[in-house]
Design brief:
Arp2/3 complex 21 kDa subunit ARPC3, 435 residues, mainly alpha, Hypothetical protein af1432, 0% strand, 21 helices, 2 domains
Length: 435
């Protein structure tokens, strides 16, 4: 929706018109306006908290509580002020706000309509809770279904995502978290009708606010980690133009290997970091050597071979990288002991370093640079298999081969155009012996 195409604008306009029609019956609904105002204020205020924590859907419990407590048009109105006045991170902001408001109005209207059809307005009491639970479950499914249908449509029309991918898995992924929010909303509604009134209902939000705040802190910390890594990689890319984009691709290939090995998500993420940062030590290598035309002298090669140690010094104080730091230091070691910087053999080489070594060599072979043309993917895989057992860990090579055959690989040109003639010879004929 960055630059909303005409069909996307028509889609948003149609959603806005449908949402307006949902609000028309407000004239005859005669809802308790104080309750509408209270819930709308809670949702609007919560939306700002969510935006600061970069969370989405955080205050769905308030919207779903409104669907269980109010007539459908009044419940839908609860979402409008927060959706229209809340912060928007990307342009165009006007259409985005209108889209968010329309989407929520339609979803809440559907949930309230289903609940009103299957349940009784007075059933939201402690004594009738089991009966209300079934109606509330159906309402949550309707709420989630409308959101995912609309989301898939906007992805197809505004973001140009292929239709076959736009809705794939969207509903199952959304249902579980929205079901939790729906349960919290139902508890709010039950307490709202209890002898303690709306004040008790608001207490349901307190533990959820605490958990959301904790999650927001984690999100900020994770974003700071990503920013740190991005800054380091950008610095390497600026210094060594021949490897621009190489780091990200090595990170992706490392992640593919890790997943094929069946590692848990936390280790997969660490190995992605390892691949992305494996060449960060090039910041300590003179630029003239990284960009030199022609073969390197033995002395120049010794200087460049210091980059794993430079990299380890740079990242060893970054605690969240964990075992990725060992991969930065040892990704040029070889199983037969002929690698550097320490000539480690076999199992002496940390597992993350063995993963990154294969990913690094694979991308080096399948990328075009000024001193070597890209090899076809299958040729590169065969070369890795040829060197498995001497240079590379056979397990890692097999994992990459399986992953590439299953998901494919589409490397981008890293420096020069694919048709550019080589201007300097490769520094070695063995895979992965690049700068």
């Amino acid at each position: 929706m960055e630059s909303l195409p005409a069909r996307g604008r028509v889609y948003v306009a149609c959603a806005a018109l449908a949402a307006a029609l949902c609000l028309v019956p407000l004239r005859s609904a005669h809802p308790p306006w104080w309750a509408v105002a209270l819930l709308a204020g809670l949702y609007a205020g919560g939306g700002r908290v969510a935006a600061r924590g970069r969370l989405s859907g955080t205050f769905y419990p308030v919207l779903l509580a409104g669907a269980f407590l109010l007539p459908a048009p009044a419940a839908a109105l609860v979402a409008v002020p927060g959706a229209l006045l809340g912060p928007v991170g990307r342009r165009p902001r006007g259409p985005r706000r209108l889209w968010r408001a329309s989407q929520l109005v339609l979803a809440v209207s559907a949930a309230a309509g289903v609940y009103g059809t299957l349940g009784e307005p007075d059933a939201v009491t402690a004594s009738e809770f089991p009966r209300a639970l079934a109606a509330a479950g159906a309402a949550v499914v309707a709420f989630c279904l409308v959101l995912t249908l609309l989301d898939g449509g906007i992805l197809t029309l505004a973001e140009r995502v292929p239709a076959r991918r736009a809705w794939r898995g969207l509903f199952p992924r959304s249902l579980a978290p929205i079901a939790v929010h729906g349960l919290a909303g139902l508890m709010m509604a039950v307490l709202w009708h209890s002898p303690y009134g709306p004040v008790a209902a608001l207490l349901v939000l307190l533990p959820m606010w605490v958990s959301w705040w904790v999650f927001a802190q984690y999100h900020r910390e994770h974003a700071a980690h990503q920013a740190t890594i991005r800054a380091l990689v950008q610095a390497v890319d600026i210094k060594d133009g021949y490897t621009r984009g190489h780091s990200e691709r090595v990170g992706h290939a490392s992640m593919m290997i890790a997943r094929e090995l069946g590692l848990d998500d936390e280790r997969v993420e660490v190995l992605r970091f390892a691949g992305i940062l494996h060449d960060v030590g090039k910041l300590g290598v003179p630029t003239r050597l990284l960009r030199k035309d022609g073969p390197l002298t033995p002395e120049e090669r010794r200087i460049i071979e210091l980059h794993p140690e430079y990299g380890h010094e740079m990242v060893r104080g970054i605690s969240f990288l964990g075992e990725a730091r060992a991969a930065v230091l040892h990704h040029h070691e070889r199983l037969d002991g002929s690698g550097y910087p320490y000539g480690l053999r076999g199992g002496q080489i940390p597992e993350p370093a063995r993963v990154v070594a294969v990913a690094d060599a694979f991308d080096a072979m399948t990328s075009t640079r000024s001193y070597s043309r890209a090899r076809p993917v299958q040729v590169a895989l065969r070369e890795l298999q040829r060197c498995a057992g001497s240079q590379f860990d056979p397990r890692m090579v097999t994992a990459l081969v399986r992953a590439v055959r299953r998901f494919g690989w589409h490397p981008a040109v890293t420096a020069d155009e694919a048709g550019a003639p080589p201007s300097r010879p490769p520094v070695s004929s063995t895979p992965g012996a690049h700068r």
